[in-house]
Design brief:
heterotrimer, A alpha/beta (120), B alpha/beta (130), C alpha/beta (97), A: 120 residues, alpha/beta, Hypothetical Protein Ychn, Chain: A, five-stranded parallel beta sheet, 29% helix, globular, B: Hypothetical Protein Ychn, Chain: A, 5 helices, 37% helix
Chain lengths: 120, 130, 97
């Protein structure tokens, strides 16, 4: 099968809307199709991978576990924008998965290398 | 050139599906091909045949079905998103013990893999959403 | 690369985010077209960005919103057919939802 480069871009916070969850499903399916998949977290998207979500009170499934399963699907290219973290008082230590922290310009360059960029 | 289109919002709330429709028409008018239109998130509501908009408003579902029939388009609704939101065809009705169907023709319900396949097969994938 | 923006710059940071991240071509559609209305706070932003990006805006959306008489100079207007051409000309596109 043809392999294309897919980047899934997350710019929205979790739980307030479903987009983060459905983006994650796209990532897992693209990986199952053996595509070259990467993820980028920008703007409020960085909140999706913040550690310590306790979602019992809102009765919505937390997706921390699924993020941690990404490695099993060989999804290891996970980029996070430095500026978005700093703006929100976060560092890589606050995140639930290992990521590569990059500048916006560096993330922009990687976007341009893709065949398909899906933003949710 | 082969295009694929992803529609991620429902009709009548957000302009996304209107823009997607105008875009699809323009793609075909230019002599390009549409490999598939995929409906995800609330976009699955574009596929219910039970909508009844006022007469002086556009009929978004009918517009999609007419475009699809005239051009033999593959219109695919994400199964997981459809199940969550109550978009049902015969197969889903039987599998999940429901008492009705509402999927308009020629939409079909299938897996998210169809979106990835569209991305692989088409030269361009364009997303319309909120 | 083609960056498609459908958010008003007065409501959401999509335009700011593109200006900081990308290069190439921007197409403003739906509420995104408010960015190209002269006289608003976004005008200087758009003018500055014209040095780095080619900026297009969708005419039907501009007309629908009553701002056809005040489109910032240097912004190129396209119809849906032009939208299709922009997608075809750029290997990669992203809708900044």
């Amino acid at each position: 099968m043809t392999t294309k480069q897919f980047m899934i871009v997350n710019r929205k916070a979790p739980y307030g809307t479903i987009y983060g969850w459905e983006a994650l499903e796209v990532v897992l399916i693209a990986a199952a199709f053996e595509q070259d998949v990467s993820m980028a977290f920008l703007d409020d998207g960085v909140y999706q991978i913040k550690k310590g979500h306790q979602t019992k009170g809102i009765e919505i499934k937390a997706f921390e576990k699924t993020f941690r399963a990404l490695e099993d699907y060989d999804v290891t290219k996970i980029y996070v924008d430095q500026e978005s973290l700093t703006e929100r008082g976060l560092t890589a230590d606050d995140l639930t998965i290992p990521v590569e922290v990059l500048s916006r310009a560096e993330i922009g360059k990687r976007m341009e290398e893709q065949d398909i960029v899906l933003a949710f | 050139m082969k295009f694929a289109i992803l529609v991620s919002e429902g009709p009548y709330t957000h302009q996304a599906t209107d823009t997607a429709f105008q875009f699809a028409q323009a793609v075909l008018a230019k002599g390009h091909e549409i490999f598939r239109v995929f409906f995800y998130h609330d976009g699955v509501y574009n596929a219910t045949r039970l909508t009844t908009p006022p007469q002086d408003d556009r009929n978004i579902v009918k517009r999609w079905t007419e475009l699809a029939k005239a051009n033999n388009l593959d219109m695919v609704v994400c199964v997981a998103a459809a199940q969550r939101r109550g978009i049902v065809d015969d197969g889903e009705m039987q599998r999940n013990g429901k008492d009705a169907t509402n999927l308009a023709e020629p939409f079909r319900i299938s897996g998210l893999g169809q979106l990835i396949e569209a991305g692989i097969q088409a030269d361009r994938l364009v997303v319309f959403g909120d | 690369m083609l960056h498609i923006i459908n958010k008003s710059p007065y409501d959401r940071p999509a335009l700011d985010s593109v200006l900081k991240t990308g290069t190439g071509t921007i197409l403003l559609i739906e509420d995104g077209v408010y960015a190209v209305a002269k006289g608003g706070a976004a005008e200087s932003k758009v003018k500055a960005a014209l040095g780095k990006f080619k900026i297009y805006a969708l005419t039907p959306d501009i007309e629908a919103r009553g701002i056809a008489d005040r489109v910032t100079d240097g912004v190129i207007q396209v119809d849906y057919a032009g939208f299709v051409d922009l997608v075809a000309e750029n290997k990669t596109n992203q809708s900044w939802l």
